[in-house]
Amino acid sequence: MCPSKFVVCLLLISVRAELDTVSKITQIPSMPMPKDPSPSDFQYLVTGGYRPKNNDLVKYVVSLRLGKPKKFFGDNHFCAGAIYSKRAIVTAAHCMYSDQRKLQAKKIKVIAGTPKRLVKSGTTQIIDAKKLLPHPKYKKGKSQKYDVGIVLIKEDLEMGPAVASISLYDRAPVANIKCTIVGWGTVIQYGPLPDLVVNGDVQIRPDSFCRKLLGWTKKGMLCANDQSDTDVDSCQGDSGGPLICDNKVTGVVSFGTGCGEADSAGIYTDIYHFREWITDNSCPRGTYPMPKLFILMLLFLANIMDIV
Description:
The structure is a single chain. By secondary structure, this protein is an alpha+beta fold. Among the domains are: about 60-165 and about 275-280, Beta Barrel (Thrombin, subunit H); about 180-270, Thrombin, subunit H (Beta Barrel), CATH 2.40.10.10. Helices cover about 15% and strands about 25% of the residues. The chain has a 6-stranded antiparallel β-barrel. Strands 2-3-4-9-8-7 form a 6-stranded antiparallel barrel. The chain is globular.
């Protein structure tokens, strides 16, 4: 017996609503998206990557989860980030917004020590976000500039073999530096998110190449790809994850045109450009380093004694 047209319509409406909900979580658009996306649309998109036998970089990367899992652990992953300190995660500013509204910190969880997105292991750490700090000049929906942010968490991460902090790049990056992107983004455009984290090796490209990319600007942005294999690229779900060069965070996955398209490249926030802002804002209030506080107290007491 064939279902009625009314029943079919209801089913199609239900499926479309579910797809729209998932899209808001896994895609963070910088520009209005058409109803029928084409390969040239902006995506916050590791495709064409690989999985090393021993992944020494995943310990620096966290999965950001929005709300509660719908069916199973890890199905609410929407962005990634890099561990800068026990309390601070560096990510993309656009990961802190849904449509035009800033997300509430209480709805975000930071998951560390879990190479497999869908598997909670003995090294897994789950900590609630305390505060979301997008760069103050970031304008959601108007520009891709200043796409960097910090997630401050409620408790200290326990550092060890599976969870570690990573330094910021300490000099202006130059073309042809070899780097690696790490994340749980889709392995093909509009495809499913992988369980096990994926790496992709790319090189920073010169400004002469980057400037032809839609939305790129020299101030605060980098672009990177693999010239010998254009399939290697960041993809949906990689947003906010680190571009690691010389074992330091050099970029943050920001945006791109499609996923692994020929003669294109992923665009990343230049961490060196924002290093001072990140350093100044990555220490939560109430966690002032005790040694410095102790020194200030000693100086204060010394001044009192001199007065007396």
